[in-house]
C-alpha cells in the first residue's frame, strides 16, 4: 500500500477515535454525520486490506511449503525408480547367468548326440564278410534296410537341429574361411595348394554359438603354405 494513502487512513482513523471521545464526553462532534460515515468506511477498508494481506501471506507460505514437500516426494520417487531399475537389470542379468549355467551342460550333451548321429550318416567302408554265406546277401533287401535305418537317423537329426534352433543355437561356419581362434581350435594343418594359408579346409568337429555367444569351439584343420626348397635359403 502507498505510504501517502496509509498516512491519510491513519490520520482519519485517529480523527474517528477523537470523534468517539467527543461523543462520550457530551461535546458536539466536530464532523458531520456524512464525514463520520466516510471515515468509518475508510477504516473498514483499511482493516479488510490488512486482513487480506495477512491471508495472502499465509496462503503463500502454505503453497510454498506444499511445493517444497511435493518436490521432496518427487525426488524420493525418482531416486526409488532409478534404484528399482538397477535392481531389475541386476535381477535379469543374474537370471540370465543362472539359466546359461544350468542349461549349458544339457545343451552340450544334446550337441554330442547330434555329432554321433551326423557321424553315423557319413558313408563308411563296409568290412568284408567273414562267412561264405555272407558273400551272397540279397542286395535289394540290404539296401532297403540300410536306407530305412539312415532315414530314421536323418529324421532324428532334424529334430535335434530344430531343438537347438529353438534355443537360438547355431553352427559356426568355418570351412573355406580364415581361421578364427575365438571360435575354433586348430587340431591339425595340411598343405593344400588349392587353399590360401590360414584357411580352414576341414571341420573335425563343428562349433556352436548360443545366442551369439560361444557355446562350443569348432575343431578344424587349417591349410598352411607349402615349404619349398627356395624358401629355406
List the helices and strands and how they pair.
Blueprint lengths: L2 H23 L7 H89 L17 H28 L2 E3 L12 E8 L8 E6 L2 E3 L2 E4 L1 E7 L4 H4 L1
Parallel strand pairs: 2-6
Antiparallel strand pairs: 1-4, 3-6, 4-5
Keywords:
alpha+beta, 4 helices, 62% helix, 233 residues, three-stranded mixed beta sheet, Nucleotide Exchange Factor Grpe, Chain A, domain 2
Written account of the structure:
With 233 residues, the protein is α+β, with helices and mostly antiparallel strands. It has four helices and six strands, in the order αααββββββα. It has helices spanning 3-25, 33-121, 139-166, 229-232, and strands at residues 169-171, 184-191, 200-205, 208-210, 213-216, 218-224. The strands form two sheets. The protein has a three-stranded antiparallel beta sheet. A three-stranded mixed beta sheet has the order 2-6-3, with no helix packed on it. α2 packs antiparallel against α3. The longest helix has 89 residues, at 33-121. It is rod-shaped and about 145 Å long.
Structural class: alpha+beta
From the N-terminal CA to the C-terminal CA, the straight-line distance is: 109 Å
Major sheet: size, sense and barrel closure? 3 strands, antiparallel
Count of discrete alpha- or pi-helical segments spanning 4 or more residues: 4
| Number of DSSP-assigned strands | 6
Helix fraction bin: 55-70%
The rough form would be described as rod-shaped
Instruction: Calculate the mean pLDDT score and round it.
Output: 78
Order of helices and strands: HHHEEEEEEH
Rg from C-alpha positions?
Answer: 50 Å
Walk across the major sheet and give the strand order: 1-4-5
Spans of 5+ residues with little confidence (pLDDT < 50)? none
In terms of DSSP E residues, the strand content is 5-15%
Amino acid at each position: 500500500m502507498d505510504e501517502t494513502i496509509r498516512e491519510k487512513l491513519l490520520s482519519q482513523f485517529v480523527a474517528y477515535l477523537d470523534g468517539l471521545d467527543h461523543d462520550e464526553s457530551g461535546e458536539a462532534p466536530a464532523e458531520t454525520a456524512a464525514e463520520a460515515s466516510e471515515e468509518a468506511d475508510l477504516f473498514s477498508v483499511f482493516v479488510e486490506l490488512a486482513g487480506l494481506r495477512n491471508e495472502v501471506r499465509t496462503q503463500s507460505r502454505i503453497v510454498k511449503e506444499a511445493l517444497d514437500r511435493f518436490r521432496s516426494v518427487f525426488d524420493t520417487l525418482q531416486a526409488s525408480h532409478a534404484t528399482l531399475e538397477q535392481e531389475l537389470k541386476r535381477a535379469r542379468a543374474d537370471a540370465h547367468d543362472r539359466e546359461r549355467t544350468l542349461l549349458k551342460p544339457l545343451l552340450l550333451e544334446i550337441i554330442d548326440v547330434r555329432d554321433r548321429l551326423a557321424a553315423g550318416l557319413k558313408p563308411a567302408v563296409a568290412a568284408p564278410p567273414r562267412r561264405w554265406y555272407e558273400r551272397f546277401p540279397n542286395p535289394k533287401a540290404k539296401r532297403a534296410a540300410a536306407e530305412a535305418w539312415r532315414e530314421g537317423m536323418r529324421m532324428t537329426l532334424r529334430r535335434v537341429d530344430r531343438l537347438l534352433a529353438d534355443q537360438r543355437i547355431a553352427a559356426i561356419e568355418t570351412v573355406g574361411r580364415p581361421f578364427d581362434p575365438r571360435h575354433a581350435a586348430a587340431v591339425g594343418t595340411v598343405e593344400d595348394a588349392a587353399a590360401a594359408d590360414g584357411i580352414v579346409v576341414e571341420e573335425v568337429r563343428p562349433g556352436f554359438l548360443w545366442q551369439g555367444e560361444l557355446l562350443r569351439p569348432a575343431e578344424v584343420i587349417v591349410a598352411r603354405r607349402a615349404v619349398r626348397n627356395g624358401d629355406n635359403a
